[in-house]
Design brief:
The chain has about 325 residues and is an alpha+beta fold. The protein has a domain at about 30-120. It contains six helices and 16 strands. The protein has a five-stranded antiparallel beta sheet. Strands 12-11-10-15-16 form a five-stranded antiparallel beta sheet. Helix 3 packs antiparallel against helix 4. The radius of gyration is 25 Å and the shape is globular. The protein starts with a helix and ends with a helix.
């Protein structure tokens, strides 16, 4: 009973997380489609690990990231708007947080002059959407494991109550069934985690945009530091517009190509830029293959966990059948 109640709680809270992530994803897509582009000032930031929610008027909102920022901008209606607790991805967090200090910089955004519409940081939109897809996948697996596990245990208990002879010695040639709870729990957790890792590795291994919707340009490496190894990039588009992006995490192999004796020797690199900045992030072409082995390792580990989980579940089912 305790295990079943635990699974019910896991399924319930995972369903709330999935609903919150779906609502955030829908809101981002709505603001990108209907909003207008402008610049907003970051006026504050706060960590929300212990309180991952916000209230916009009467409407509650799930904050899936550990850091959120407060934004201020001048709206088309002539009023100054402030929206608090706008989530930012871990990559964007590294760009604005240094120690305990937050950089109060101006960032390009898409907004609606509506207090309930959460602004979208254009430089962070792709990373946020990718993070939300991962959250949805993980919470979906947990909902499946929680509710199906609880439902299965409830049905099994009802069946045992409807067939008391099967659990009384001497009346049905069967003794009381001993549930292999540990194998059931380990199997469900291993299957859920393995499926999530496999899905995440497959998603990360795919580019965030197709080759036809991107442009190859030569970018200047304007700054570099490490470890951990990061670089700042700057480039011009075909219309003469200047763009900046970073910090970008790079592999040790790529770092060894551009750095010698503590000095930056290579000052330019080829990058691929998506036509729509909300559909993908700039990628360093010469560093693209560096993390393939990591993705393959995560994918292999996920598959192993899925198989181990299935094995534990089948073993538990066989044990209950023989009991």
């Amino acid at each position: 009973m305790r295990l079943r109640n635990l699974l019910v709680l896991v399924g319930f809270f995972a369903a709330l997380v999935a609903l919150g992530c779906w609502d955030n994803q829908r809101e981002i897509e709505r603001v990108i489609e209907q909003g207008y582009a402008t610049s907003a000032q970051i006026i504050a930031a706060q960590y929300q690990r212990t309180a991952p929610f916000a209230i916009d008027g009467w409407r509650p909102r799930f904050v899936e990231q550990s850091l959120s920022v407060d934004l201020q901008w001048q709206g088309k209606d002539g009023k100054t708007h402030i929206h608090r607790k706008v989530p930012v991805s871990e990559r964007f967090e590294h760009a604005i947080i240094s120690g305990d200090q937050v950089r109060l910089i101006t960032v390009p955004v898409k907004v609606l002059d509506d207090d309930a519409a959460v602004p979208v940081l254009l430089l962070d939109a792709s990373a946020r959407l990718e993070s939300l897809r991962q959250w949805l996948a993980l919470s979906g697996y947990l909902v499946l494991v929680g509710w199906l596990g609880a439902a299965g245990m409830t049905l099994w208990r009802r069946w045992r109550l409807a067939h008391p002879a099967a659990s009384v010695p001497g009346q049905g040639a069967r003794g009381p069934v001993r549930y292999p709870f540990q194998r059931l729990l380990i199997g469900m957790v291993a299957f859920a985690v393995g499926a999530f890792l496999s899905y995440s590795a497959a998603e990360i291994g795919q580019p965030g945009y197709d080759a036809g919707g991107s442009t190859e340009v030569t970018a200047d490496i304007t700054a570099a530091s490490g470890p951990p190894y990061v670089v700042q990039l700057g480039w011009q588009d075909g219309q003469g517009g200047v763009h900046h992006f970073g910090p970008v995490h790079v592999s040790g192999d790529f770092w060894n190509k551009i750095e010698r004796d503590g000095k930056l020797e290579v000052h330019q690199t080829r990058i691929r830029v998506p036509a729509d900045p909300t559909k993908g992030l700039p990628q360093i072409i010469d560093d693209a293959p560096a993390n393939r082995w990591q993705i393959q390792a995560v994918l292999a580990g996920g598959i192993v966990l899925v198989l181990a989980g299935i094995g534990c579940l089948l073993s538990a089912a066989y044990t209950m059948r023989r009991a």
